[in-house]
Design a protein that fits this description.
10 strands, 18% strand
Length: 342
């Protein structure tokens, strides 16, 4: 449990570091009108906060920066409510008055506004991510080593893909596999299909199929949807390049590469937004090493209590948490109202 003074100093360090991206020293904090302690007192408290794991000291500087633990404490206990400027509130709300008849247009427009207002990357999942599920799977042999895999969803969407059948796997064996897959996985959301293939079907297939590994390779290819990009909307991807901590080309390349991996991104965003309200994942709390120096803040929008989609903002751990949380709060509520009416 931090003392009131430690909480005040941690807040000041996080706020200053968010603004400057430079390590924060005791002297600069003592000059703030809202702190009122001497540099020596602040220095002692900073040392204690570092020992407790809330601060880190870069080798090249006498100043401190927040650790992931420090950001987490700030978000959970210290982040102030952000007052959104009236002109920005107007910008958030006016696009609902435009004649955007297609939900996809609404989502894309919201993403553009978010990335522009925050200067971070916005990621939005549309309703079909949550509600499109497998109705039926079929495998039609073309010859001895090739077949067409057909995936039919509950929304009537049909995807065809040519797959290779490994040598030694018979047509009858594949028919047994397809029947088992339809029994076990019908009704599973499309974004969960590939993981369900291993968790819900893998053991049973291993017992009943002689060429288990070869068959799993075929199914993995067949269920690798090519249309997932239509369900994820990105805006402001290159905003990462403007952040000082991402001057390292390799670091930012790994982030940009992950943003192009739609299935991985979908899984991360759905996982991050599994709770209610605003969810904040800081640094290594994210499910992928590429986002170890990033924070992902998400909110869901819903109709009659049922989640329809997710809005996410990705930025550095040195993110303007109060501002982003405030904007996402407003936008997710407005999206919910808009969708309830339409």
């Amino acid at each position: 449990m931090l003392t009131e003074r430690q909480r005040m100093i941690l807040t000041a360090i996080v706020d200053d570091y968010i603004r400057s991206a430079e390590p924060v020293g005791s002297r600069s904090i003592s000059k703030r009108g809202d702190v009122g302690y001497s540099p020596a007192t602040i220095r002692n408290e900073m040392s204690d906060l570092e020992e407790l794991g809330f601060l880190e000291q870069p080798h090249t500087s006498a100043g401190r920066i927040p650790s992931h633990k420090g950001y987490r404490y700030y978000v959970d206990h210290l982040v102030p409510p952000e007052a959104i400027a009236s002109e920005e509130l107007m910008q958030l709300k006016t696009f609902y008055a435009e004649k955007l008849n297609v939900l996809e247009q609404v989502i894309q427009h919201a993403g553009t506004i978010l990335s522009h207002m925050t200067n971070y990357t916005s990621i939005l999942l549309g309703p079909e991510v949550f509600h499109t599920s497998l109705r039926h799977f079929q495998l039609l042999p073309l010859n001895e080593d090739t077949a067409v895999a057909i995936v039919v969803t509950n929304t009537g969407q049909v995807e065809n893909k040519t797959v290779s059948i490994p040598a030694g796997v018979s047509v009858s064996e594949m028919e047994r596999v397809v029947n088992l897959l339809n029994r076990k996985l019908a009704g599973v959301p499309i974004y969960k299909l590939k993981s369900a293939l291993y968790t819900e079907l893998g053991q049973e297939l291993q017992r009943h199929v002689s060429h288990f590994e070869e068959v799993m390779t075929v199914l993995d290819q067949a269920l690798d949807s090519g249309n997932e990009g239509q369900r994820v909307f990105l805006s402001g991807t290159t905003n990462m390049l403007t952040q000082p901590e991402f001057r390292d080309v390799d670091k930012v390349k790994s982030i940009l590469d992950l943003l192009e991996e739609t299935p991985t991104l979908m899984k991360m965003l759905v996982s991050a937004s599994s709770g209610s309200g605003i969810q904040v994942r800081i640094g290594t709390e994210n499910d992928h090493a590429a986002f170890a120096n990033c924070s992902l803040i998400t909110a869901t929008y819903a109709v009659e209590g049922e989640a329809l989609g997710t809005i996410g903002i990705l930025g550095p751990t040195r993110m303007e948490y109060a501002r982003v949380i405030g904007i996402l709060n407003i936008l997710s509520k407005d999206m919910t109202k808009f969708l309830s009416k339409h």
